[in-house]
Amino acid sequence: MGRSDMHDLIFDESFKVIGHNGIEEKFNYFLLNNVPVIDYSRGLRSVCGKIPLTQWKHYDGLIPNGTPAIFLKVEQDHDLNFCSLYHELGHIELGHLDEELHDERLDGVQIGIVIKAELEADAYASKFVGTEKIIKWLTFLLNMTQNKIYYFEFMEQKRETGLCEEEKEHLDIWKKSNQEIKLRIAAINKSG
Ligand SMILES: [Zn+2]
């Protein structure tokens, strides 16, 4: 795992991008199985995708176009980081980035359906970090999404005008994400 092991993450490489606003940003990363793992602590959650992301107008090309990469939202608890890391690596190693599923991802959760890619990535991560830690990580994500829901619902009640359309969409996504995580935990408990 390069300069990092299961106890620490060392982002010892970096590249630059120019975002939509024309401002240069530097990202730190390390390589895991040749996959760049980028420190993405400013994000809402960890994700994976192909470089460059659409919001980058220009970047320095140190990582070739089309390279699958992991954007890791670093938490203080390293157990959580390694669960995120291996879940996202699972998506990449299992070829999920080439599937066009992303828009429909949360559509089925209200009727109890989680897309296969999520369950496969959880199973992949379980092999590296263990089922117990995956449950702990998913419970953390469950609480995080629940807090977002509480926040938007609080704002909805507090403001006379309620939520704007964008906020309503965010609330809807957090609710679906929350439901998806419950289903993922249930799937892991069922598989024993
Ligand atoms: Zn996933």
Give the N-terminus to C-terminus distance in angstroms: 28 Å
What is the chain-wise order of helices and strands? EEEEEEHHHH
Q: Total domains, how many?
A: 2
Annotation, overall tally of beta strands? 6
Q: Mind telling me the C-alpha Rg?
A: 18 Å
As a percent range, the share of strand residues is 15-25%
Order the strands across the largest sheet as they lie in space: 4-6-3-2-1-5
Give the SSE map.
Layout: E1 13-19, E2 24-32, E3 35-39, E4 47-50, E5 56-59, E6 68-72, H1 78-93, H2 116-129, H3 131-158, H4 165-191
Parallel strand pairs: 3-6
Antiparallel strand pairs: 1-2, 1-5, 2-3, 4-6
Zinc ion binds next to helix 1 and helix 2.
Walk me through the structure.
About 45% of the residues lie in helices and about 20% in strands. The protein is α+β, with helices and mostly antiparallel strands. It has two domains: about 1-75, no CATH class; about 80-190, no CATH class. Strands 4-6-3-2-1-5 form a six-stranded mixed β-sheet, covered by helices on one side. Zinc ion binds near residues 87, 91, 118 and 121.
